[in-house]
Amino acid sequence: MGLLGVLTSIKDRAEKFLNEKNVVTDFLGKVEEKTGIKKKVLAVGAVSLTGLYLVYGYGASLLCNLIGFAYPAYYSIKAIESPCKEDDTKWLTYWVVYGVFSLGEFFSDIFLYWFPFYYAFKCLFLLWCMAPVSWNGSQIIYNKVVRPAFLRHEAAVDNMVSDLSGKAMSAAENLTREGRAGPNRKPGLKKGLKES
């Protein structure tokens, strides 16, 4: 599929979305009634303003993170509630890639924020990761990067998690024992009895 095919597919999906009944199209329909401006033009204007805001606006980080979080969160909940397992896997894959990306971004934010148009590119990246196509970013990144790295280090990570959970359980048991014993009593000594 060439670039023209991708753009045609996006246009078709956008037109299909604008003809469906949902919160966005209801809102656009009301605005269309009051202003006389077609829904399609309103949608293109909203997308253009969002893009400009991501490039020049204050708080572009918040807007970009909302775009990368709100839509996937909504469809993740719908996937959980549906009987189909395929959509669960799709959104779990997105969240794994989103988490890896966020972790990498956390450690490199000092450098990344200096790049012009960073939030516009980040938003495009997140949109690519959640795109409803077979070649979306989350599928590609998961299969080419995350999964091979996970499979290479799975045993070591499992051992480390097992050791940490054992240590955490032991620490919790010690804290519980000390909490029941109180500050002036030794573990195992009943209330009212004094040590001889």
Automatic annotation (TrEMBL):
**Topology in membrane:** Multi-pass membrane protein
Annotated Basic residues bias: 187-196
Instruction: Cite the residue spans of the region called Disordered.
Output: 173-196
Q: Which domain of life is it from?
A: Eukaryota
Q: Where are the transmembrane segments?
A: 51-71, 92-113
Signal sequence extent? none
Fetch the PANTHER family from UniProt: HVA22-LIKE PROTEINS, RECEPTOR EXPRESSION-ENHANCING PROTEIN 6
What family classification does the UniProt entry report for this protein? Belongs to the DP1 family.
Protein name in UniProt: Receptor expression-enhancing protein
Organism (species)? Nothobranchius furzeri (Turquoise killifish)
**Encoded by which gene?**
REEP6
